[in-house]
Amino acid sequence: MAKRKRLDITAPTATRPSQPVVEPAIEPEPEPVVVTNQTSRRWWLPIAGVAVLVAIMYPASFILSHHSTIYPGVVADGVSLGGLTAAQAETRLAEHAQAFRSQALTVTQDNTLLRIPVVNLAPEYDAPAAARLAYQYGRDGSVSQRAYALARLMAFRETAITTLKTKDKQLVPYLTSLYDDLSTPAQNASLTFQNNKAQATAAQAGRRLDIGQLSLIIRDRLTTTSLDPIPAPVYTINPVLTTEALEAAMGSINNLIASPVTLEYGSQTRTIDQSTIISWVNTATPAPREFWFSRRIEDLYPVDSSANLGLSPTAIQRYVATLADSIDQSARNAGLTMQDGKLIINQPSRNGVKLDRSTAVVDITKVLQTTGERRVSLKLETIAADVNETNLESLGIKELISTGDTFFPGSPSTRLTNVRAGAKRFNGILLKPGETFSFGALLGEVGPTTGYVPELVIIGTKEVKQYGGGLCQVSSTAFRAALAAGLPITERVNHSFAISYYTWPYAAPGVDATIYYPDVDFKFVNDTGHYLLMQTTMSGYSLKFEFFGTKTKSGTIRGPQFITGSNDATKASRTVFTVMSSISMAKSPKPMPFIQIIAQASTSRSLTSSIKLTFST
Residue-wise over 72-93: b if at least 16 C-beta within 10 A, else e? Predict the structure, then answer.
């Protein structure tokens, strides 16, 4: 601004004749007069007027100039739509979304680059809806809402709208892949044993991909249709057990492993070396839960935890359990056989041994707290055999109570091999009073190592070769002996086919028991109140089971008899037989309830129902 020139005007002095000077009378000075500048008080009025005018005209002109187009500053799905009509905006949005789907998002971290094709994330954008929302922004809503929207736009503040819809499951494979590539677990400090001393191995920090944050960033990219690279958010996982913490405890740890421990039991000894003891020092920490497995939001980030250094009771218990497995020995009953009506021992009994585990854990833990020579005397418990040389008289095995016989002429040599191996397995079996006999459980493994060869077995409606084919001859013979003894049959299934091996001497099918363990089994209960001894004898094509014990009842097989059909292999048959059981008259004169067994068998090559047991009095 140009400086104003200051203009000084001085009036000329006039020459006047000399006149006497008259001193004026002294009067009081007048009071000062304050003059107010009215102009300075009104300077703001024009400015205020202009502001009011602008406040009225600017919004009006803003609204009028965009009466048919979207207001500036409105962005939808990452596209700026200001100045476009709704129809133009819809076209642009559709074109932009189509172009964006053909691109790929990139996630980077160190030398790792993951490209995620946008189309594989299946984002959905609604161009008509986005265009409509963009056009309505600042035009819909209450007066206050419209005023607020217009104020934002006129203040050049951007407003973003999105119609994005996504399916989270589309993103999961990419997050999983990147998580595996970028995440490394933290390594806690650990112990090693060298030169009779414990040493600490340094801890190492780990890292983990922040999948929660990455998911939000990827969604933001999809919302704004931005292809800006995404730095993978990775955070550090600190070890729970640090090197410093472990080194601080090294003195106490070396005291625990100062010397080995000698275990004494019976006439034997065993040494727990120092390297084993150091493995018992608890350096383990709670394993971090993985979000991918737990699906819990709190497992996205690690939780602070601590390590408790010291002897691990669990580790010592595991050692003692392994030790017990090598020391414990089951008792073995005496092997018995009945010869000429006399019970004879053919194999001596053997007492069992059992380690007192809880006492061993306590004693070993206690001795580790001491110095000097370390010794522990393990406590062993002796377990007597149930059947031994001193209690034969109490077993009640004094007489033959039943026999079961089968005759199977024409059997091939392979079948005879399997029958002989199976029968041998049941020779000398002892059943305690009340014990349930399970043919499959007692039979054990069936294969080449146990003496069996492949032979035909019946599976459903087919015959196929498998190891042990023919073992049903053994189970059927045992079934007949159990029936003759009047023992309760708790599980039994007849064959699907009528086979001549199982019809002798009845000339009709029905008195047989198939096994295919564990699916099909033959079971009965020793309810005689005494021990029961089983003996088997095989001669040529004949097999016999003999049950010895105390005879309290007996069973007589009546039948089987045909109800319909015959032994003709092309026709179906129904047979029926009954077993009459009675209490030994020496014990009680009352008759025992009988068991009526209705057996359905088929002489045709078709599947039939299982034998049905019904109990009646």
Answer: bbbbbbbbbbbebebeebbebb
- Please choose, from the candidates 227, 100, 102, 81, the residue with its C-alpha nearest in 3D space to the C-alpha of residue 161: 81
Closest by Cα among 203, 209, 202, 201 to 184: 209
Q: What is the 3-state secondary structure (H, E, C) of 129-195?
A: HHHHHHHHCCCCCCHHHHHHHHHHHHCCCCEEECCCECCHHHHHHHHHHHHHHHCECCECCEEEEEC
User: Residue 125 carries which side chain, given as an amino acid letter?
Assistant: Y
3-state helix, strand, coil in the chain (%, to 5): 30, 25, 40
pTM, 2 dp: 0.53
Amino acid at 122: A
- Report d(CA 155, CA 136) in Å as an integer: 18
The string of pLDDT tens digits covering residues 566-575 is 776 556 667 7
Check if the beta carbon of residue 164 is closer than 8 Å to that of residue 223: yes
Report the Cα–Cα distance between both ends of the chain, in Å, rounded.
132
Cis ω before 302 (30° cut-off from 0): no
pLDDT given at position 14: 40
- The SS3 assignment for 99 reads helix
What's the token pair of residue 466? 């498998």
One DSSP character per residue, 264-321 reads EETTEEEEE-HHHHHTTB----PPPPPHHHH--GGGGS--------SB-HHHHHHHHH
User: Mind giving me the DSSP string for 215-275?
Assistant: HHHHHHHHHHT----EE--EEEE--SS-HHHHHHTHHHHHHHTSS-EEEEETTEEEEE-HH
Structure tokens at 146: 């419209």
pLDDT, tens digit, 9 for 90 and up, residues 226-257 = 999 999 999 888 888 888 888 888 888 888 88
Summarised one tens digit per residue, pLDDT across range 46-69 is 666 666 665 667 667 777 878 899
